[in-house]
Write a structure and sequence with these properties.
5-stranded mixed sheet, single chain, 46% strand, Neuraminidase, 351 residues, 4-stranded antiparallel sheet, mainly beta
Amino acid sequence: MTTQVTAKILFTILGAAVIIYILFVFADIPNKKNNGFNRKWLNKNLSAIAESEISLPSNRICGITNNSIYVTAENPQHILIFNRRLELIDTLFLNMNIPPNKIVPNFLEIDSPMIFLHLNNLETAFYGNIEKRSMNSTKLNIGIFLRSIQVSPSTMIVRSIVDSLTYLSFKKVDVVTGKTLLTNNFIGNDAGDGLTNDGMLLYDKNSNKIFYIKYFKNQFYSADTNLNLVYKTNTIDTTFTGNAKTGIEWHGKDAKIIPSTARIEVNKYAFVGDSLLYIQSGLRGDNEGLNSFVKNDDIDIYNLSNGKYVGSIALAKQDNQSFKSAKLINDTLIILYTRKIVMYKLPKAIK
């Protein structure tokens, strides 16, 4: 009897292994095949010059000054303050009565001494002075929004989806009055499917331009703060069409458009600094092995003024995890993981 049971167990294990092998061989695994482009490596793997463990699970680098680095915990009301040697020097708590289920998603930025917090689900903008520990709030007359950035002490830009998640809308909003100043869909005819055209919204203070980088297509856009298109261009990969297939989910009489299949993120994260746009890519270049791609985060770099590709760098993942947030100040790159903050010096070839 024991021999029979053992044989059945071994047979089951062998059968499962065969099934997994067949799925691996025949499944359409992202980055298993070539993607039709090569990277120009400026530095294949940057070396850290400083790092520090973080006691609380962290979420985002929300501001950098000449002396301080501001990091939010998972709750944006909790802010950790590090010096430029990555030593924790202070903490800050935003004492606001916010329902826990309304905190996420959010946008928080510190441009010392000013602080700006946007809560999408509350349709509210908070702004104040860190040194005075004071916060004001404004109810925004724009409905629920999905992306937002602060572009001046008194104005923000939001991106929402209207008409049953099929149409993108960009608005410039006065954070003091809550009123919409102007609306313009600067991505034009590409705004036909809110899910396929989902993306990241960034602001570069030096050029006073905003940037919209799509998650699922190789496209990004530059616009001025009055939502006029400056240029539209492509990332170096070849994903010209969105890979998101949609379906309909019914809640009683209400219908919602949702992804019906897993979506491949072409562009996973982005940040700006020193006249350059940095995009973390979700696609492997043909001149990089799959093992190297799995172990590193590939970051492609573009010129902010014209969108031209400059080159790429790679960052080793920490505990097999990609970074959560990044900021650049001069030639120093600050990278945040859930429990660690790391500092890198960028190669001179980027400058």
